[in-house]
């Protein structure tokens, strides 16, 4: 028996003209057909296209473009040949000034919808000077079909492989490394190292030119150790090679164990005069230029001997910068390898007398005696949590200690807004809301928010944003489809 057509009249195969009103963080445009919200990859706000429905769900539909009827002035020509297929970038078709305006609106909308902040002043995002060739890390999928080794990224919303020969959003050195990996995978003296390989992770220092390579396999591979010198001769700038093995899941990029088989464990990067040695498995921001801009923005708040507690400190990226500018810092991080690297990097920068690192889960560490004392003495708490945000026990501990100033750096506007709403209930007022475009060409945005005790003049103030070449070209985002974003939050945060 044939399924009945929904009351909307939509069914797979239906074709109609659709005007698009907004753009979600996963790159899908929002439109309506017969009163039903339709999500389509490719269009931009203000555009009209003939759309064919491919899926009908109870509350929305998904479609594909048949033909464009009207195109926006915001549209740009994508600069990558696999854009729209590869899942790495979502908005190369959106001109860069419009990307910055869109990300400002994403932050403002999340703060309003989720946080309840109706009139918050969101500053214009700080953009990159040149919004390409910025990623200092790439994780390539390794595919071995019909006896040939290929490298690539996953398709959008899929685990199908998109083979690549170059990538215009990674550092030029990493782009060149792709060709080097192909050479190594074909050469008789090194190709056996890629037998059974799942992923190849390369991380490079923009300032140093050094790179480290890790190859992920199910089990420890003696071939990677044996062939490492031959691989290093072919991959530009590689100073160390490791074998990551025993991944937790079939698609995990890194394994639970790491064997360093040749050369150095870490590459070196320098940002605003601070040196970092970073391994392939370290948590380290992918955009060194933008980290430098955030450093310069925060520096005026770091008076000599001002005490800072850095929660979720990772390998000490920000904690060591704070200490290098005269602050006294306590960093808390649960990953033992990250804590080890943080301590080594503190020694590298000769600030080990100004910063100490505590290994442990943040919510537990702030509840013990030492953690409570650190919060009681803190002039500033800096939080840079993972995408899931912080948690109520941690935020409660901060508020109970009465820390006067908070700096919250987030890569997820939704969880940021949730946590800010909780802090507002505990007596904190928002200060600066400054987005930074850490991830050009994607739907991700980094946001720094300062908070201080409500009703009290903030002790720590930060300057106006740093000027960028795009500032005069950033205009207001043309729309904010409140209905779609409130009714379909799962699409907003993908």
Protein topology:
Layout: E1 15-23, E2 28-33, E3 36-41, E4 48-56, E5 60-70, H1 96-113, E6 137-145, E7 148-154, E8 161-163, H2 172-186, E9 197-204, E10 211-217, H3 222-234, E11 238-245, E12 257-263, E13 267-271, E14 274-278, H4 288-298, E15 307-311, H5 317-324, E16 328-333, H6 336-348, E17 355-359, H7 362-365, H8 369-377, E18 380-383, H9 392-401, E19 405-410, H10 413-425, E20 428-436, E21 446-453, H11 482-487, H12 489-492
Parallel strand pairs: 3-5, 10-11, 15-16, 15-18, 16-17, 18-19
Antiparallel strand pairs: 1-2, 1-4, 2-3, 4-5, 6-7, 6-9, 7-8, 9-10, 11-12, 13-14, 19-21, 20-21
Q: What do these coordinates show?
A:
With 494 residues, this protein is an alpha/beta fold. The chain has helices at 96-113, 172-186, 222-234, 288-298, 317-324, 336-348, 362-365, 369-377, 392-401, 413-425, 482-487, 489-492; strands spanning 15-23, 28-33, 36-41, 48-56, 60-70, 137-145, 148-154, 161-163, 197-204, 211-217, 238-245, 257-263, 267-271, 274-278, 307-311, 328-333, 355-359, 380-383, 405-410, 428-436, 446-453. The strands form four sheets. It has a seven-stranded mixed β-sheet with strand order 8-7-6-9-10-11-12, covered by helices on one side.
